[in-house]
Amino acid sequence: MFRHTNTYAVGIAESIISIAKTVPQGILVFFASYNLMDHLISKFKELKDSNQKLSSKSYWDQMTEAKLVVVEPKQKSHLARVRSEFTRGVQNEQGAMFFAVCRGKVLLNA
Questions:
Q1: pLDDT tens digits, one per residue of 30-88
Q2: Pair 36, 69: CB distance under 8 Å
Q3: Can you tell me which residues the record assigns to a coiled coil (predicted)?
């Protein structure tokens, strides 16, 4: 399945990083499922950006440098805390991005 290839993960990561560096304040990043979100986050942490000759930063490191990254929790009881964290991140200069699942807790409880 193409969604589980490194090429797919790198393409998504580079798109997210580009958007995060361009858009002020907050962005929402929706995934098709919790499995896909978890898989891609693992890949973002594992894969290094080969375009950065002097640095071996992972794509995840670049994302967290661009904005505070908040991930939708699997437990509904943690959702309010995570939403507050995102809101605080959006209000500071760096901004924040929220990784969530389409038809997940964040979208349905909005």
A1: 999 999 999 999 999 999 877 766 568 899 999 999 999 999 998 888 889 999 999 99
A2: no
A3: none
Quick one: which of 99, 96, 109 has its CA closest to 36? 99
Q: Angle formed by the axes of helices 59-66 and 6-22, to 10°?
A: 20
CA 32 – CA 22 distance, rounded (Å): 24
Domain ranges of the chain: 2-108
| Residue type present at position 16 | I
E strands, the chain, are: 26-31, 68-71, 96-101
Amino acid (one-letter) located at 6: N
- Average pLDDT of span 24-30: 95
**pLDDT for residue 3:** 76
Residue (of 23, 33, 37, 27) closest to 12 by Cα position: 37
